[in-house]
Amino acid sequence: MxxxxxxxxxxxxxxxxxxxxxxxxxxxxGAEPNTNCCPVCLGLPGALPRLNRxxxxxxxxxxxxxxxxxxxxxxxxxxxxxxPRLPKGYRIVQCDHPLALGGSLxxxxxxxxxxxxLERVCLExxxxxxxxxxDGASVLVDYNRAGIPLLKIVTKPELRSGREACLFxxxxxxxxxxxxxxxVKPEQGVLRCDAGISLRPAGSQETGTRTEVRNxxxxxxVEETLNAEAKRQAEILRQGGRLVMAACHWDGKRKVTVPLxxxxxxxxxxxxxxxxxxxxxxxxxxxxxxxxRLTV
Length: 296
Known about the structure:
By secondary structure, the protein is an alpha+beta fold. The chain has one domain. It contains four helices and 17 strands. Helix 2 packs antiparallel against helix 3.
């Protein structure tokens, strides 16, 4: 039986602001660990977030550049889950009320031109990062990155191969680069993605059991990973096996996908409205001002 690959992407782009999303700490790289931190981005008692206007401007410009519809009111939520990378025990994200809806990118694929639709564009904060200790056994936590503003771009599941996903990311990066929102070198860690991939019988409209591959940091890694995962799923199905929904990461040395440890997937996460931030209301004149900046 022939199978069709179904791929959807969640792309994360670090916005080029000088300060974090909810505080005045610097976003500059290269600082000593845990020096670009304050009570707000560490979630200490009594500290309250304050939204970075510049990050909102970048996010609105990105949504407009991608053809999305900017919402005049959006809201923030707390995504609570246990992870040593989250000093607050949660991240402030957008869930049910994103910054923008819709949008699309038209691409020239080997089998012809096709428009890939976007589901939503969101604004959220980054988590900290884990660093391997010098002894090779310990793991340290650096919270300098916690709170850096991220643009989250979610596509509809309309990509059909690792190659198509790679071409989509290249086109997306070019659009954001032209708008002054993305860094010149995405491999510097300012652009990454999670990919949901499933297989279904050719011609079917039903979606198969999905695997989510996390933290892909380069265009080549996306193509290689998704093609390998599609091949793995196809082999299981052809042998009469059954796929299991899972979150995993790519082991570049062994060229295989590896399940994430318990607690590192999204199944244990909970969302509720962020109580320390009012809804963000964007007037039409502000949205149009951002649109004009794209055409200057």
